[in-house]
Design a protein that fits this description.
InterPro entries: Sig_transdc_resp-reg_C-effctor, TF_LuxR_autoind-bd_dom, TF_LuxR_autoind-bd_dom_sf, Tscrpt_reg_LuxR_C, WH-like_DNA-bd_sf
Pfam families: Autoind_bind, GerE
CATH class of the largest domain: Alpha Beta
Radius of gyration: 21 Å
Protein name: LuxR family transcriptional regulator
CATH superfamily of the largest domain: Transcription factor LuxR-like, autoinducer-binding domain
Structural class: alpha+beta
Helix content: 40-55%
Keywords: DNA-binding, Transcription, Transcription regulation
Distance between the termini: 45 Å
GO molecular function: DNA binding
Number of helices: 12
CATH topology of the largest domain: Beta-Lactamase
Number of domains: 2
Order of helices and strands: EEHHEEHHHEHHEEHHHHH
Length: about 300
């Protein structure tokens, strides 16, 4: 199989333009986002009835602890030349990161410390390229650093990017690949990151990429359901009873006037709160709002 992303001229590198705990991280310009840690249950179930039953996914689902799942993935990583793997998700609202979700079983030590503490998820150029690209992003630090000046950044963001690259270099994460998958029914993209110690990405062949995809998609198959549950839990907690009734009203096809009469308020007030809900959920209209909240089982 031929992958343009592996050409040595690097021209195909994408442009760089369930119980859970949480904490806060300050994003760019003082904006605070929530960091959600998803704990790992003793046993996972494969998420969807029609999900391909990959051998690795079945083994991961049957494992009895986060440590066992982590050991399984790490042993597979080393066989294909990588040293670390990370599985995490970013929740977006109007193209802005609102939450960072980290899965206990699939997060290396670096992501547990500096990546969160220094909010590098906000300046990591790989996540933008992986989310927008049609192919997995194959990268090395030299390329990331060389392409960074093409971005329009303020001083704080540039300092953050320099710190991110410095951290990656010091921790031996000098090359690798990353790909992203949207999680249906949510505003989240899950990211699968593979890193190695070699200075250039030339060692990542088509075979290596295929093997990494098998590992990453297997992890996604068993872990995405926990991220979805965590997002649903937090969104449900944020809704007021009034907002729930609004969502039920539009799901039933009621007009603003009809919803207003039901809730003893004006149509203008209904429209105002529905606009706030559309902004919160990052959707453009009532149909998208109904669809998303139904998928999240909020109504």
């Amino acid at each position: 199989m031929h992958y343009p992303a592996l050409r040595k001229d690097d021209s195909a590198l994408a442009p760089l333009s369930h119980s859970c705990g949480s904490e806060s991280a300050v994003a760019g310009r003082g904006r605070t986002i929530e960091v959600v840690w998803c704990n790992d249950p003793r046993q996972l179930s494969l998420a969807a009835r029609h999900t391909p039953r990959l051998g690795i996914a079945t083994a991961l689902a049957a494992a009895q602890s986060a440590c066992e799942r982590s050991r399984m993935v790490n042993s597979l990583l080393h066989l294909i030349g990588f040293s670390t793997f990370a599985y995490f998700a970013l929740e977006f609202g109007r193209e802005r990161v609102e939450r960072l979700f980290l899965h206990e079983a699939f997060i290396p030590g670096t992501y547990r410390g500096d990546y969160v503490r220094e909010r590098y998820h906000d300046v990591d150029p790989r996540t933008v390229a992986a989310r927008q690209g049609r192919l997995p992003l194959v990268w090395d630090l030299q390329q990331l650093h060389a392409r960074a000046p093409c971005l329009e950044r303020g001083d704080a963001a540039q300092e953050g990017l320099d710190g991110f690259i410095k951290m990656m270099r010091e921790d031996g994460m000098r090359s690798g690949l990353m790909f992203a998958m949207p999680i249906p029914g949510t505003r989240m993209h899950a990211f699968m990151s593979f890193t190695g110690q070699r200075r250039t990405h030339d060692w990542i062949t088509s075979t290596t990429l295929e093997q990494a995809l098998a590992i990453g998609l297997s992890v996604h198959t068993v872990a995405a359901q926990q991220l979805t549950a965590a997002a649903r839990e937090r969104t449900t907690d944020e809704l007021t009873e009034f907002e729930r009734e609004l969502l039920l009203g539009i799901a039933e096809g009621a007009s603003d006037k009809e919803i207003g009469r039901r809730l003893d308020t004006s149509a203008h007030n209904v429209d105002y709160h529905l606009r706030k809900l559309r902004k919160r959920f990052g959707v453009a209209n009532r149909t998208e709002l109904t669809y998303l909240t139904s998928k999240l089982e909020l109504i």
